[in-house]
Specification:
The complex is a heterodimer. By secondary structure, chain A is of the alpha+beta class. Chain A contains 28 helices and 23 strands. The two termini of chain A are 63 Å apart. Chain B has one domain: Arc Repressor Mutant, subunit A. In chain B, 57% of the residues lie in helices and 15% in strands. In chain B, helix 1 packs across helix 2 and helix 1 packs across helix 4. Classes of the chains: A alpha+beta, B alpha+beta.
Chain lengths: 890, 110
């Protein structure tokens, strides 16, 4: 009741201001008259009586102000009036307002962009899933390993015999394949690659995801004893490739040579529990051997491939679940001592990124947030010093307001309204910027990564932007506001605003120094990363990247026999070699610098013995004859494999120089024999090639052996004399003409392929380059602003100096010296910080030391030059000061 | 003359205004004079505090206002206690009595 009355009374005051005011006026006037009447009865004149009443009881205006400020509507009213005033003030200087808003918008926008990635990767729960906050991931943990290597997903027997049915904490425990499969879809004789994910029978029911058409995979479909070849289609796949065919149910799709019947279509927006992947279909986990052609996967106690996720019962706790899975893991060890697992198990909250990898994603996005946070800081410092300058110019206005009765709080409020208005505009613009730049950032990723990432501007991004904008508004507005509220009435009203020298602008100089320091930090990191990118692009990987194309093929996935596989590759090789422009073609089991690896240990056959500890860890590649010629790798000694060696899987090897050096230092390796760990028979070295790059571009020399045996999964490499891109289509056609069922999973030029190993360097180089450039521009603007302000405040003093005989060069010196002084102080601080920060990114740098002296010197020089330029314009104005004019201004 | 109302504990003025209005409805000046008389000149609220208290009480629904002619043929807003205001006055008077007695006991104890 009283709240309502309070509200209506307040609203009445707001909207019927005049009437309420008149009433109050009448009431107060009556009050004074009555008090005066009393006094007049005691013999005072009317005038004296009224005066006495005012003295005793307060003046009419003051009283009214007190009463008005008592209600809540007063705050709303003043805020509104401040807002209107702020808009007027900002519109008066459209140029500087726009500059401030744009600078801030860039800072806020870039941060919002990075945050939209953080949101998409780390914060957003899986869509279309019931109560995702109850889901927990189970990981087997090796306490002896640190980082992501220490965590393993479950094996099928782990899941099937232990975790799924023997826990009390979960309502149910689902599992899915952590590595989605690229599968060949044989569409009436044409092969096409599609992305599939294997899921347990309770996957859909536990997530409460219902098919829009048909049904989802059930527990009956997923029996290892009797797996059903059924698939649920992804909504996007169904729409794009099957034209939303509503009669699809019961029809079959041939996937990797096996017919699967379509039982349903998943709802739109549901893409599973893994970030970045949008499966085209889901199939039961028990079908894994048919999909991967990997016999025995279901009974393999060593193959860790299932990510298990449980829905916590309402009464269960995460800690309870953790203790329980740990007990289960120890039970496995007790039951199967022959496995020698010595592992533990633990649970994590489930998000779109599997728990062990979250730390890396957090670290990377955290680094980006920090970098762009610094850019924002510089932008804020700029705005603060701009507002500070304006606030000083408005001291008189503040003094007048204060004299008219405005309190300190009111003045601060008004300044803060102005700054938050600025930052709100900037936040809005920043959001628009983020909306446009986030997809651009995603385009940096190599095309060969089958990743689809949605970057929605949802409430989290919105909230983040609002909070950042408000913090910015208050942060850069508070100091000027506090400053301007501290007015000295008398001196200001008398127009004694003549700040002498630079000491008066200490705060602004401090801001500027900080700005220069931050800018230095960013510029050093940016320069290091850009240089590292240039180095990385020019690193010789040891093979030709200009005239080669590659295609990944796997006829084995279709269940082809060994003979069929061999025939296919022989025919393909002939077809491709016959293409115009092709100078060579060959195969390898995997390309260097990709995600695939084969490790083993090797030793000199002469040293092989029971006590030998001389095993050397090496990488192993398997290549067909002509591989080195195709890839442009010269044979230093010996000869290439021949086709009979490939066919027979002969025990011959070609090694790289590093391996030759490690095993037979200063000896001729040709004809020497080596052994591989736990493999029978020695292998004879028949050739030596130069050492290239195999794992990463920045690696130290890795010892590598090339062997002639090949598997069904191979990468075709083709050398052309002309532009390789023109050959992509004809190679695809040849693959199709040899066997229409087979589709290449990655068909690309070597240059496209190289975008994968260069991805981290490129991303970092680009992002840091952009931020460094922005930082430099913003700092230059800041320097220019502060120096011109100081010059304008010193016009009088400069006039005096000129009048006393100072030369123009003296004035120029005076101004530039001050700017340079600020820059040098900032530089020293910034270089120190950069020295520390560069160590953090050192692992991402190619061929540049984090303390690279040329980088540091270049940054310092650039900043000094920019400072001199930023000082020059205001200094020129100072030189032109006419002493007559500036002195007369007194 | 010092402004005695500043010595008043926040909220106490509200209680005094309610007490004044408990006897008869009255205009602002009347309230002020009555408080001064009853306190024998110790409290002399200035116009700002007084009308702020009146506004507060009015918004809380403890008093009602009505424009009426005065004995000197002026127009003034007369305030009267509402039922709710009467209850509030009773409870506050009781509470004040308790507290004042307690404070007095503490001060006399030493």
């Amino acid at each position: 009741m009283s709240l309502l009355r309070n509200l209506t009374s307040g609203i009445r005051t707001l909207f019927r201001k005049e009437q309420v005011d008149r009433e109050l006026d009448e009431e107060l006037r009556g009050y004074q008259e009555m008090a005066a009447d009393e006094k007049m009865k005691q013999g005072m004149s009317r005038q004296d009586a009224l005066r006495a009443v005012r003295l005793e009881r307060g003046s009419l205006g003051g009283t009214k102000e007190i009463i008005r400020s008592g209600g809540w509507e007063f705050v709303v009213d003043t805020l509104w009036r401040d807002l209107l005033f702020a808009v007027r003030m900002l519109r008066r200087n459209p140029g500087s307002t726009a500059a401030v808003v744009i600078a801030l918008a860039l800072g806020i926008g870039l941060n919002a962009t990075v945050f939209s990635f953080v949101n998409a990767l780390l914060l957003r729960p899986p869509t279309g899933v019931k109560a995702p906050e109850q889901l927990r991931e189970i990981w087997i943990h090796n306490p002896r390993d640190s980082g992501a290597q220490g965590y393993l997903p479950l094996t099928y027997p782990d899941y099937f015999y232990y975790y799924r049915d023997h826990n009390q904490s979960f309502e149910g425990l689902l599992a899915y394949d952590g590595d989605p499969h690229l599968v060949i879809w044989n569409r009436s004789g044409e092969g096409q690659t599609v992305l599939g994910q294997l899921v347990s029978g309770n996957f859909f029911s536990l997530l409460d995801v219902n098919a829009v058409l048909g049904r989802t995979i059930s527990a009956e479909d997923d029996q290892p004893a009797n797996p059903q070849p059924v698939v649920v289609l992804g909504y996007g796949f169904w729409r794009r490739h099957l034209g939303s065919d509503s009669t699809i149910l019961g029809k079959t799709l041939m996937l990797n040579g096996v017919n699967y019947s379509v039982i349903g279509v998943a709802p739109p927006g549901f893409t599973g529990l893994l970030v970045g992947f949008e499966p085209d279909f889901w199939a039961p986990t028990a079908m894994v051997e048919q999909i991967t052609r990997d016999k025995g996967r279901l009974s393999n106690w060593h193959g860790h491939w299932l990510i298990a996720i449980g829905r916590l019962k309402p009464e269960a706790s995460t800690n309870g679940a953790r203790a329980e899975v740990s007990v289960l893991e120890h039970q496995i060890e007790k039951d199967h001592p022959d496995l020698e697992r010595n592992l533990d198990a633990t649970v994590f909250p489930a998000t779109l990124i599997p728990a062990p990898y979250r730390i890396y994603v957090s670290a990377f996005t955290g680094l980006l947030m920090a970098v762009f946070g610094f850019v924002l800081l510089i932008a804020c410092a700029n705005v603060a010093s701009f507002l500070l300058a304006r606030a000083t110019g408005r001291t008189r206005e503040m003094a007048v307001r204060s004299a008219l009765g405005a309190g300190r709080g009111r003045l601060i409020q008004q300044m803060l309204v102005e700054s938050t208005l600025l930052s709100s505009f900037a936040g809005l613009l920043g959001l628009i910027l983020a909306y446009w730049t986030a997809p651009l950032l995603l385009a940096l990723k190599p095309a060969s990564l089958p990743i689809t990432l949605r970057l929605p501007i949802d409430w989290r991004v919105l909230l983040f932007t609002i909070i950042v904008s408000l913090i910015c508004g208050v942060a850069f507005g508070l100091t000027p506001a506090l400053r301007s509220a501290k007015v000295q009435l008398a001196s200001n009203l008398k127009d004694e605003t003549r700040p002498a020298g630079f000491r008066k602008s200490r705060l602004r100089s401090l801001l500027l120094t900080g700005e220069v320091a931050t800018c230095t930090l960013l510029l050093v990191c940016a320069t290091l990363c850009v240089r590292s990118l240039r180095n990385a692009s020019s690193i010789n990987p040891g093979f030709n990247t200009q005239h080669v194309i590659a295609a990944r093929l796997d006829p084995g996935s279709l269940g082809y026999s060994e003979v069929q596989v061999r025939t296919f590759y022989e025919q393909l090789s002939e077809h491709v070699r016959a293409l115009p422009g092709v100078t060579a073609a060959s195969f390898t089991d995997h390309l260097p610098l990709g995600p695939a690896r084969e490790h083993t240990l090797a030793t000199d056959a002469m040293r092989l013995g029971p006590g030998n500890k001389d095993w050397l860890p090496i990488d192993r590649l398997r290549v067909a004859p002509g591989y080195f010629q195709t890839m442009g790798i010269p044979l230093l000694r010996g000869r290439d494999f021949n086709s009979s060696e490939t066919e027979a899987g002969a025990s011959v090897a070609i090694i790289n120089e590093t391996l030759a050096q490690r095993l037979w230092k200063n000896q001729d390796p040709l004809g020497k024999r080596m052994n591989f760990y736990q493999e029978k028979g020695p292998t004879e070295v028949i050739g030596v090639v130069p050492t290239g790059k195999y794992r990463t571009l920045g690696e130290d020399p890795v010892p590598v052996v090339f062997l002639p045996q090949m598997w069904a999964r191979r990468t075709l490499v083709v050398r052309t004399s002309g532009d390789p891109a023109t050959l992509l289509a004809s190679v695809r056609r040849e693959i199709h003409s040899v066997d229409p069922n087979i589709a290449p999973t990655d068909l690309e030029t070597m240059q496209q392929y190289m975008s994968l190993p260069l991805f981290p360097a490129r991303t970092l180089g680009l992002l840091l380059g952009v931020s460094g450039f922005l930082a430099l521009v913003l700092t230059a603007i800041g320097l220019f602003g502060v120096i011109s302000y100081i010059v304008s405040q010193r016009t009088h003093e400069i006039g005096v100096r000129v009048a006393l005989g100072a030369r123009r060069s003296d004035i120029l010196n005076l101004v530039v010296r001050h700017g340079l002084f600020l820059t040098v102080v900032g530089l020293v601080v910034g270089l120190g910080m950069a020295f520390g920060a560069a160590q953090l990114v050192s692992s991402l740098l190619y061929g540049v030391a984090p303390t690279d002296p040329p980088t540091f010197i270049a940054v310092a020089t650039t900043l000094c030059v920019v400072t001199v330029l930023a000082c020059y314009l205001p200094a020129r104005r100072a030189m032109r000061v006419d002493p007559m004019v500036s002195l007369r201004y007194e | 003359m010092p402004d005695k109302s500043s010595d008043l504990v926040q909220g106490t003025l509200d209680m005094l205004v309610l007490k004044t209005l408990a006897l008869e409805s009255m205009h602002g000046y009347g309230i002020s004079v009555r408080i001064e008389q009853m306190s024998k000149g110790v409290f002399r609220p200035n116009a700002g505090s007084l009308f702020l208290a009146i506004q507060r009480l009015h918004r809380d629904g403890l008093i009602d206002g009505e424009w009426k002619p005065t004995e000197n043929n002026r127009r003034a807003k007369y305030y009267a206690l509402t039922e709710k205001g009467r209850k509030r006055l009773n409870s506050e008077t009781r509470e004040w009595g308790r507290q004042a007695a307690a404070i007095a006991r503490i001060l006399e104890a030493s």
